Amino acid sequence: MSNEIIINNKPCELMKPYKNPKYGTRNILTDSTWEYVALFLKRRKTAGSADALFYWKQAQSFYQASKALPDSASPLNSYYCILNASKALLRYHNIGEENLTNHGLSSVRNSEEINLKKSETAIKGAGVLIELSKYFECNLQPQHYCIYDLMYNIPCVHRAFCITYSKPEIFIPISNPKFVKNKDSKVWISFIVQDRYASSKMLASLPTKFEKDQSFTDKCVIRMKKRIKWDIHTDIEERKRLLCNYHQNARKYLYYIHSTSKLWYIKRVVNTNNNQLQDISSAVLIFAVFHWLSELVRYQPKVFNKYMSSKQNWLLHEFINKALDQFVDEISSEITGEDTMCTGFRKM
């Protein structure tokens, strides 16, 4: 029998931030994540927060310009929004200041064929993207990466990708990801897998750090094998620190899609030709793909136009219109350590 972990009368569910989530705080409801994060940064007195605020406001301006433009022009502004939002995060955490003058990647214009499988981007050894990947503890190697492979590993456009290319899904929807403890005060993360994804084949492809909880017979509950001790006699701040470290280990395998509700997924381990992307953060992948798109729009607009007349146009349209908001939401969470959600009205 297990019980939920409670801090400040709030059950501890999985939070969006990869690092330093503020467990015990309530969700932030706001109509403008941009303004909330700007006000948050204005209150900070840490070194780098002033620079972070400057980059954040620049990113907001690029975001607003991007949303006012059609698909044929918006990727350029979207990319600079992403670049400056990344700089805001890195400067706030005082990471890699000396490497923020370089982007960390370059375009590869070796083909004008309209085929994502033959389109590539070149990741460099230093720059903003590399520092961002280090923040998320990604093992992103300096080499050429195929755009097709990058997009296959991005959750917010995964369904569009799989439909476009008739590929199997690698992100399994999960619900109610939370921290629970048993009578011995051992804590782990637990979540439910929907019945349609609970086949033995699907479950066999989960990361090896997870297992099925056999104590449940009426639903498919998955838990992380690793445990931590939740000693109520230990100072609450020390317990929060332990929980945050444990959370960070779990978040390497769990992804969310930005929405009006929390949509969580676990990524399957499958044998593909892009296994080097298995544990890469979606924010890092979005950064790389938007750079490629921005280069097309800027230097090869005719090639971009051909893409938007091909079978891949819906996938690219979905990426342009969804991935930017996903990226901004992820970076916002990493800066504040909080879950921000859109305001709404409770149903009566």
Total number of β-strand segments?
Answer: 15
Helix content estimate: 40-55%
β-strand percent reads 15-25%
Q: How many discrete structural domains?
A: 2
What's the mean pLDDT score? 92
Q: Element order, helices and strands?
A: EEEEHHHEEHEHHEEHEEEHEEHHHE
Backbone CA Rg: 21 Å
Q: Judging from the principal axes of the Cα atoms, what is the shape?
A: globular
The secondary-structure class comes to: alpha+beta
List low-pLDDT spans: none
The helix tally amounts to 11
Largest sheet: 8 strands, antiparallel
Distance between the termini: 34 Å
Molecular structure report:
The protein is of the alpha+beta class and 348 residues long. 41% of the residues lie in helices and 17% in strands. It has helices spanning 33-43, 49-67, 74-92, 128-135, 147-152, 158-165, 200-204, 236-251, 282-299, 301-307, 313-336; strands spanning 3-4, 6-7, 10-11, 28-29, 105-108, 120-123, 144-146, 171-181, 186-193, 210-212, 220-224, 228-229, 254-257, 263-267, 340-341. Helix 1 packs antiparallel against helix 2. The relative contact order is 0.20. The mean pLDDT is 92.
